[in-house]
What does this fold into?
Amino acid sequence: MTGTADGVAPISLQRGRLRRETSMHLLEVKNLHVEVDGKPILNGLELSISKGTVHAIMGPNGSGKSTLAHVLAGKDDYVVTQGEVLLDGEDLLALAPEQRAAQGLFLAFQYPFEIPGVATMTFLRTALNAQRKQRGEGELSTPDFLKRVREVAGRLGIEQEMLRRGVNVGFSGGEKKRNEILQMALLEPRLCVLDETDSGLDIDALKVVADGVNRLRSPERAFVVITHYQRLLNYIVPDVVHVLSRGRIVKTGGKDLALDLEATGYAQYQEEMA
Amino acid sequence: MKPEIRPIKTAAETALASSFAAARRALPGGAAVAALREDGFRRFERDGLPHRRVEEWKYTDLRALMRDAKPLAGAPDTETKARAERALRALAAIEARRVVFVDGALVPEFSDLAELEPGLGIRSMAQALAEADARVVGSLGKAVPTDDVAVALNTAFMGDGALIHVTAGAVLARPLHLVFVNAGAAPASLFVRSLALIENSARVMLVESHIGASGGAGQDQVNTVLELQVGDGAHVDHVKITGAGAGAIHISTLMAAIGAHGRFNEFLFTTGGGVVRNQVFVRFAGEGTIAGIRGATLLKHRQHADTTLVADHAAADCTSREVFKSVLDDEGHSVFQGKIIVRPRAQKTDAKMATHALLLSEKAEADNKPELEIFADDVQCGHGATSGALDEDLLFYLNARGIPAKEAEALLIQAFVGEAIEGIEHAGLRDVLLEEAATWLQTRK
It folds into this structure.
């Protein structure tokens, strides 16, 4: 099924056609090479994602999953040595992290940070207004903002009291992940990258988080779900599954690929590369 | 055999000596006060201005920092008062009973002295000295006796200040706000001396603001002393906001003696002045008192601010928490010297001291010198210090949510300072200080 599943564009060698197809994709990663501390982590990664689709990226530890997430978001310790990344045809790598966010990219962190002294509410409002300002939009009115926060927070089981506390301060692992989904829902990104959102979650918390994500699925929005385990994909059902090994996509298929991986493990892909 | 070293007098020392010679007869007070002044001046003359080889002044070398001594401030004229009045408008947000001093002198027409609450008395220190009020004269320098040279100089030159008396059990509904505005046309020296006698079980919130609004490029030299004598079971909050002129030298000393089973909260908020030294000498004179001694300092350019604290636990069962935070940009330099003394009688003392410095530039400097002198065997005492830059991971987290770098930095700095300010009990004052911190951040490069 390589390269033919829904949402994966056939690769064309003709430049003219390629450009037309590019415009159909929300995200286009081409021949991406990334180093961290001089060590190559991504080695010619290719990825095309259309609007309205959910792509899962699976792979063994150290295959470059989190590096991909961080380089998309713009973390500066990650050095791009080759390749390009286009978000809706625009050069993503030329933008600062906050500009990427304003353009509709969202990274749900594997380990969300605690920010003592910055109330969650302040954080949410500052982020939303900063993005709107960059896009030339007006600030959201306070009643509208509060209404939206309460609605989404309620659905995610985040209590009002938690919103007054410092960002993620005293939150359990599950609460931190739910807080990431809350931010995602409020900021309404076009491309959501979820970095190991399932790590450290029990099954109930996993369902709440997955439900939060599924509610955000829309024809205008795409998701990249990065995970080590198949379990999350029972709840967030992907359209496409990629296997990442040693910094490259080595296999692409439909959702059944995740089940195969669960049965056989990653060993075969690591050996193929060796 | 002790070698006799007579240092050459600096320009500032010479100027102070001639100021004293010229002014001694005109300064307020009778024979008893004159004797105190002579003692103070002799103490100053003995060693001169403190310098880096004097341990208590190691990081604030006044001999080097004080190039000259400005002439003593005169009585404020109409223009000076007009400048002061403009500067006062910014304080409207603090809901309090205001008592205003311009160039060190009480100005009744700017002050709210009408309809004092029962049990509250406010007077001019200069007037009390001139009338040779025996109780006042007898109380000077008694709260926490010290050999400190800045206090000695203040005693020699003391002019006006606030004299506050709160009788037993009186509860002041509004904070008492002492505002010191320097607004003279030319740089001047000011020696302010205040005294507050707070009797048993009284409840008082005292706010002190120091504002530089002078025409003299903010180069005033201020030496201010506040003595607090607090009775048993009283609850006293004192907040000092220092926003002196950019080139000002501001030296302040708080001497507080706290009775038994009381509550005492001190907060020092400093953004202003070229050279600032805040000395806090607190003596726990009675058992079972709980005290919080905290502060936040925000410095930029080449500002220097020194907080020197001595918490003297002379009685058993007292708890004190000392927490000081500084945010340092450009070549800002903060100093913290904190000493906790636990006397032999002061068993069950629980004292913890912490300092945290946030360095926003490569050239900023934070010096920290904690000292514990413990003579009792059943106590809990500790100190800790941190210093560092803004957390890169937190900045990235904020950036990744769409918040630009400068705004993200401001948010984290505000959070750092905010944690300290949150400890102030008065909500209105908390908001004012948070606002001041925000303004400071906006003027950052």
Notes: The radius of gyration of chain A is 19 Å.
